[in-house]
Amino acid sequence: MKIIITDIRIGFSFLFTIVALALGVCAFIAARSPREIGKTVAKVDLALIPPLMGNLIIIGSSVKNVAAAGYHIYFIGMNIAVLSMVEFTNMYCKISRERKHRTPKAVYGLLIADIIQLLLNPFFGHAFSLEGVDVQGKTYYKLIPHLGQYFHRVVDNLILGALALLFLIMVFRMSKVNRGRYRAIFVSMMLVALWQSFYFFSKTPVNRSMLGFGIFGLLVFYFSICFRPLKLLDRMLSDIAAEMVQALYVFDPNGKCVWMNIPGMKLADVKENELDDVPAKLEDLFGKIEFGEGRYKLEKIIDSNGERKYYLLEMRSFNDDSKRLSGSFLIIRDTTEEKMRIKQELYNSCHDSLTGLYTRQHLYEQIREKLDSTTGTDFITVFVDVKNFKIVNDIFSTAFGDRALQQIADWIRSIMTPDCVYGRLAGDTFGIFAPKDCFDVDKVDSELSSFTVADGSLEYHILIHVGIYEVTEKDTEISVMFDRAHLALKTITDEYQTHIAYYDKKLREKVLWDQQISAEVHEAIEEMQIRPYLQPIADVNGKVVGAEALARWIHPERGFMPPNTFIPVFEKNGMIVDVDRHMWRCACKILAEWKKAGIDLFISVNISPKDFYFINVVSEIKSLVEEYGVDPSKLRVEITETVMMTDAEDRMRMMDELRKFGFIVEMDDFGSGYSSLNLLKDMPVDVLKIDMKFLSSSGDDKKLMTIIKNIIILSDDLGIASLTEGVETKEQYEQLAEIGCKLFQGYYFSKPLPIDEFNKFASLQNE
Ligand code: C2E
Ligand code: MG
Ligand code: MG
After folding, report:
1. What is the pLDDT of residues 491-544, one digit of tens each?
2. Ligand 3 centre from 668 Cα, in Å?
3. Which domains, ranges and CATH numbers included, belong to the chain?
4. Can you give the pLDDT at residue 5?
5. Whose CA is nearest to atom 10 of ligand 1?
6. pLDDT at residue 227 in the model
7. Which of 207, 359, 694, 719 has its CA 20 to 30 A from that of 436?
8. Which residues make Cβ contacts (< 8 Å) with residue 71, sequence separation at least 6?
9. SS3 state at 573
10. At residue 99, does pLDDT exceed 70?
11. What Å distances lie between residue 380 and 160, 199, 357, CA to CA?
C-alpha cells in the first residue's frame, strides 16, 4: 500500500510535470499559429500551468506552509485561468468578424474580489485551513473549506458553468456540420466537471483535481489549432457538387459510375439507383467516352427533335497519394444558350438592326473575301441612294421612313442572286456587289421608275438613284469602289427620268483631275499661279467705279484655267478656303496700291458658303483691311443665298457685323434659282447683283427686262441698290439704265482683265 501511495505521489508529480510541459509546448505553438484564435489559446494553456504547479506542490509537499502556498497558487492561478477561458470562449464562439460575445463586468469583479479574499486568507483564515492527513506514513495536507473557499468555488463554477452553457447553446444553434467543434469543447468541460466532482465526493486526501483542467487545456489546443473539420469539408464539397447546374458524374478506376448529381440524372435520364446505366446512357448521347487517366475537354453537338444543342464535356481523372488512379469525374455543361448568345452577338455586329442587311463594315469584309477568292474581275459595285429621304422622314414620320428603308431593303433582296452581297452603307444609302451579268440593269431601271412605299393607307413614290462602278482592279479599296459608284450617281441631273448612272471614263478623268489640282493648290497660291483678274463695274455714265476680283489659275503646264475648272472642286473638298483667303489678300493689296496712286475704286470679292464652315470670315476680312490700311467700304463682299441655308441666324449676325464695320455686302447671282424676293427683306445686304444669264433662259428680252425692272423697283423699296451683271450689249445697258439700274458689269464693258490691263482700261474709260 505504502508503495502504491509513494507511487501516486511520484506518479502524479510526473504526470503533472508532463501535462505542464505539454501545455507549455502547446502555448508556444498556438502563439505562433497564424490562426486568429492562436494567442487566446496560448493564454489559456499558459494560465493553466501555475494552478497545475500549485496542485503539484500540494501533492508533493509534507510541510504545511508549503502546501498552503500550493493551495493559494492553485486557487488564485485558477481564477486567472478562468479569465483566460472566458476570453477563449468569446473568441471560439464568435459568430462573425463583427459579432463577438462581451464579458460582463461582473465576471472581472467577482474574480478580483475572490483573488483579494484568497490573498487575505493567511491573515484571517476565513477561506480554508489545512489538516495533515497521514497516508501510510506520509503527510498530505487536506483542505478544510471555510466561507471564503465556498465563495471561491461558487465564483469559479458559476463562470465555468456559464461558459459550458454557452458552448451548449452553440451546439444547438449551429448547423449539423458545424456543431462538432462546439460539442467537443462542451464534452471536454463536462469531463473536467466530472473529474472535479469525483475528487470532491471521493474525499481523497490527495488533491489532483487540476489534472482535468490541464488535459482540458490540451483539448482546447487540439480543437482550436489542429483539428480540421474534414467532415465539414466533405459535406460542403458534396453540397457544392449536388447544387452544381452542370451535370457531374464520378467514376471509379474501372469507369463505373459511383455518384452523380441531379442535373446528371436528368441529362442521362437515369434514376438515383441506376448508376450502372450511366456510362452506356452517356455514350448513347455523346458517343464513345474515354474514362482513362488524364484530362480532356471536348465539344459535342446534338440534334434532336429539330433542336440543336451544344455541350462541353470535361473529363478529369484523380490519383491517390501513391499516384494510383482513384477514379475520374465528368462535368457536362449545356452551352447552347452561350453559343446562341455569341451567335446572336456576332449576327448583330454584322447586320443592321432595322433592315437586317449587312452593316457597311461587314459588307466591305464580305466583298473583300469574294474578290480575293476569285480570279475574274467582272464585278460591279452599286451605290443605292434614296433622294430627299429627309423629306420622307419630315413629312410623314420617322416610323414611315423606317418602313421605307425596310421596303427598299426587301426590294434589294428580291433582285439579288446568291452570288451578290449587299448591305446598308449608312442612313438612306445601300451598297451592292454583284457579278456584272447578275445585275439586270433594265429590270432595276423599270422597277425604280415606279418604286412606291406603302404603310397602311399611306403610299409614297420614292425616288431612288443608283450609281454603278465596274470593278477594274481587284486591289482597289472597297470604300473607294463605292465612292466612285456614288460619284456616278451624283452626275444624274434629270433626276425623275434617269435612275442609273455609270462611273465612266469621263468621271474617271474628272476624279484624276480633282486629285491633281488639289495636290497642286498650295504651290499655286504661293507662286501666284492663282491670281485675281478684275472685271470692271460701271455706273450709268459708263464710268468705271469698281471691279469684281475673279480667280484665274495660270498653270505652268496647262496654261490659262478659268474658275469653273477648279473652284467647284475646291468648294467640294473645302480647299476653297485657301483660295479665297488668297484672293481677299490680293484684293487688299491692290486696294492699298490704288490708295497710294490716288485711284478711288472698289473691289468685290467672292465668299464661298464653305468659308463660313471653316474659318471666321468676319475677323479674317477685318484683320486683312487693317493689315493693308484699306478703307472697308472699298472692299465689297459677295455672298450667295446658299450661305443662308445653314445656320441662317448666325450668318445674318455676321453680315450685320461686316456692314457695321463699313464693308458693303452684296448678294451675288440673284436669280440663279434659289433666290426669292421674300428672303430679301430679311437679308442684311446693301447691293443686289442680278445676273442676266440666270434670268434670260426664255430668250424673250422684253420679258427679261420686265422681270429685272420689277426686281429693281422692289429692291429700291427695300433700300437695296442693284447691280446687273452679264450685260453683253449696248441695248441691254441702255434698257437697264432706263429702268433704273445704277451699276453694271459685263462683257459689254470688258471681260475680267489682268490687273495692269484693268488699270489701263479704267484710267482710259474715266478720262
Ligand atoms: P460670279 O461671282 O457670279 O462671277 C461672275 C461671272 O460671270 C464670272 O465668271 C465672269 O467672268 C462672268 N461674266 C461677267 N460678265 C459676263 C457676261 O457679260 N456674260 C457672261 N456670260 N458671263 C459674264 P467666272 O470668272 O468664270 O467665275 C465664275 C464663278 O466662279 C463666279 O461667279 C464665282 O461664283 C466663282 N468665282 C470666281 N472667282 C472666285 C473666287 O475667287 N472665290 C470664289 N469663292 N468663287 C469665285
Ligand atoms: Mg461674284
Ligand atoms: Mg455673280
Report:
1. 887 767 788 999 988 888 888 899 999 999 999 999 999 999 999 999 999 999
2. 5
3. 2-227 (1.20.1070.10), 232-340 (3.30.450.20), 362-503 (3.30.70.270), 514-765 (3.20.20.450)
4. 43
5. 752
6. 74
7. 359
8. 54, 58, 128, 130, 141, 143
9. helix
10. no
11. 96, 109, 19
Q: How far is the CA of 55 from the centre of ligand 2 (A)?
A: 121
Q: Is any ligand 1 atom within 6 A of the Cβ of residue 550? A: yes
Quick check: CB of 669 below 6 Å from ligand 1?
Answer: yes
Chain segment 423-450, per-residue pLDDT in tens = 999 999 999 999 998 888 898 998 988 8
CA distances from 176 to 97, 179, 182 (A): 21, 6, 11
The pLDDT assigned to 460 comes to 87
The torsion angles phi and psi of 559, rounded to 5 degrees, stand at 80, -150
Q: Tell me what the mean pLDDT of segment 601-618 comes to.
A: 95
Residues 364-380: what's their mean pLDDT?
A: 89
Residue 354: what pLDDT? 95
Phi, psi of 696 (to 5 degrees): -95, 25
Decide whether any atom of ligand 1 lies within 6 Å of the 583 Cβ.
yes
Q: Is the CB of 562 under 6 A from ligand 1?
A: yes
Order of strands, sheet of 307-319, starting from the edge strand that comes earlier in the sequence = 257-260, 247-251, 325-334, 307-319, 295-304
Q: What 3 state SS string does 377-429 have? A: CCEEEEEEEECCHHHHHHHCCHHHHHHHHHHHHHHHHHHCCCCCEEEEEECCE
Residue with cell 488699270: 759
Q: How many Å lie between the centroid of ligand 2 and the Cα of residue 628?
A: 23
Q: Give the span between the Cα atoms of 414 and 747, in whole angstroms.
A: 57
Tell me, in angstroms, the distance from the centre of ligand 3 to residue 689's CA: 7
Contacts of 73 (CB under 8 A, 6+ apart): 50, 51, 53, 54, 57
Check pLDDT > 90 for residue 702.
Answer: no
CB of 750 closer than 6 angstroms to any ligand 1 atom:
no
What phi and psi, each to the nearest 5 degrees, are found at residue 256? -90, 135
355 ligand 1 Cβ < 6 A: no
- Evaluate: CB of 560 within 6 angstroms of ligand 1: no
Measured distance CA(556)–CA(569) in Å, rounded? 19
Over residues 381-434, the pLDDT tens digits come to: 999 999 888 888 888 889 999 999 999 999 999 999 888 999 999 999 999 999
Separate counts of helices (H) and strands (E) for the chain: 28, 23
- Of 525, 570, 606, best ligand 1 pocket probe by most atoms within 8 Å of the beta carbon: 606
Name the grid cell of 333: 455543361
Cβ of 569 less than 6 Å from ligand 1: no
Cβ neighbours of residue 357 under 8 Å, at least 6 residues apart?
A: 351, 363, 409, 412, 413, 422, 423, 424, 430
Q: Which ligand is nearest to the CA of 537?
A: 1
| Phi, psi of 86, rounded to the nearest 5 degrees | -60, -45
Statement: the pTM of the whole predicted model exceeds 0.70: no
Residue 535 CA to ligand 1 center (angstroms) comes to 9
- C-alpha grid cell for residue 345? 452577338
Nearest residue CA, atom 14 of ligand 1? Answer: 746
| Burial class, 96, CB count within 10 angstroms (exposed 0-12 / middle 13-18 / buried 19+) | exposed
Ligand nearest to the CA of 744: 1
- On the question of pLDDT at 676 being above 70, the answer is no
Ligand nearest to the CA of 608: 1
Ligand 3 centroid–CA 562 distance in Å is: 15
Q: Is the CB of 747 under 6 A from ligand 1?
A: yes
- How many whole angstroms from 225 Cα to the centroid of ligand 3? 100
